[in-house]
Target: Ribulose-phosphate 3-epimerase
Amino acid sequence: MPDYKIAPSILSANFARLGEEVDNVLAAGADWVHFDVMDNHYVPNLTIGPMVCKALRNHGVTAPIDVHLMVEPVDDMIRMFADAGATYITFHPEASKHVDRSLQLIQSLGCKAGLVFNPASSLDAAKYLLDKLDMILLMSVNPGFGGQKFIPATLGKLTEARKLIDDSGLDIRLEIDGGVTKDNIREIAKAGADSFVAGSAIFNADDYAEVIKAMRAELAQ
Ligand code: DX5
Ligand code: ZN
Model:
C-alpha cells in the first residue's frame, strides 16, 4: 500500500479557535495540515498568511504544514512562508513569471516544492520540471472555496499525472484537493493519488477521528 497522507484543510476549521482545531485534527489521526492561502487576486477570496503559519508553529504544531498558495505573484510569499515554518509550499504555475526559479527558491529555503493544476489546466508545465518537484497537486474543484463538489474528470488527470511520475522514477507526491470524502477517496486513490486534502468532509463532522478512520479504512481496501 502506498504511504497515504491525509491533510485536513483548515479552511473549514473554526478560525476563532484555530490552534485547538489543529491540535484536535492531528490527535484524530491527520498526517499533515493543509494551509490554504488566498489573496483576493489570484482567487476571489481572502484567507490567512505567514503570521498564522508561524503562530501555529509557536503553538507547538510539529506536523508537516502543506502550504497551498493561491496568490499572485508568489516569490515574496514563498520567502515568508519558508520563514514561518512551512514544510511544503505549492503554487499555481500561471501565478509565477518564472516557474522554474520559484521552485528553486522554495527548495533553496529548505522546503519541499510543488505545482498546483486547476481543473482546466493541462499538466504540460510539470513536464520539464519534474526534477524540481516534490509534489504535484491536482485541484478537483475550482480554487477559492471549500465545500464544493469533486469534479469527476480529475480522475483521468490523476492517472495521467501518476504515469508521468512513475515514468520519471522520481519521488514526487501526488496530492488531490477539493471535494474529497470518505465515499470517493478509494476511487481517487485507485486513480493514482497518494495524498488527500479534505476540508469540509472532516471539519464539518462532529467526530474528526471517525471520518479520518473511515477514510483510512477505504484506502486499505
Ligand atoms: C480550495 C482549497 C481546498 C479546500 C478543500 O481552493 O484549496 O483546500 O479547502 O475543501 P473541501 O475538502 O471542502 O473541498
Ligand atoms: Zn488547498
Q: What stands out?
A: The CA atoms of residues 77 and 122 lie 25 Å apart. Residues 9, 34, 36, 68, 177, 197 surround zinc ion (ligand 2) (CB under 6 Å). The longest strand covers residues 33-38.
